[in-house]
Amino acid sequence: MNKELRQKYWELKKIIERLDSAIVAFSGGIDSALVLKIAHDVLGNNAVAVTADSPSLPRRELEETKKIAQQIGARHLVISTEETKNEHYLKNPSNRCYHCKTELYSKLKIISEGLGIKNIVNGTNLDDLRDYRPGLQAADENNVISPLKDAKFTKNEIRELSKHLGLEAWDKPSSPCLSSRVPYGQEITMKKLSMIEKAENFLKDFGIRELRVRHFGSMARIEVKEDDKPIVDENFNSIRKKFGEIGFNEIIVSGFKSGNLNLMINNQNA
To answer: In what order do the strands lie in the sheet with 250-255?
Structure first.
């Protein structure tokens, strides 16, 4: 670990130590996993991980959160959130994540009050500020603390420190919610979320770690990295058959880029 990263690590621990206690909004991604690891190391049982469960969270991801929290040794609560009952969320506007995070943080406030813990922290990092992230507004409105951002951690530094600290999830791919696979402006439905989850699970069973299945009505766009395209090509007939059973009558395959549906928003704001 180089000097700069060591200094940021020290600063991160100091930021969290000053909180005395904290609810960690724990998605199971590497960002919130590192926050939880440090919070548990520094605060012990005064750090509690809370994961929001809803139809937009894949079952595989839910199980991953439980596994990671157990590996860290932290107390972990799973709560139900109801963003998929919010008509503003279901209309899928470009600020959909704002409605999701507002629901999350309102629920976390109730948990924090019940446990006597006044601080809520998340995994927002320095790189997140460069992308279109409407959820950041909800965090600000609810006084949520972002230790990684405050300690000026980038995504690469988060992975490097996580690896150094022995977190098994240090190289885990990002996995946004299932609703992020539906283009903005197209309604979110439980059927669409189910279709996406089934399709992605089928592809992951071939050993593809990082992918997206975008929902365009009866057409699915499979996004995978170049190294994984041969897997899709070799199994295309079985994929086409399975996707047809799920409800996708047409498939296109393209390159993977996290945040693809945000590109349009970013271009509009440029």
So the answer is: 211-216, 219-224, 250-255
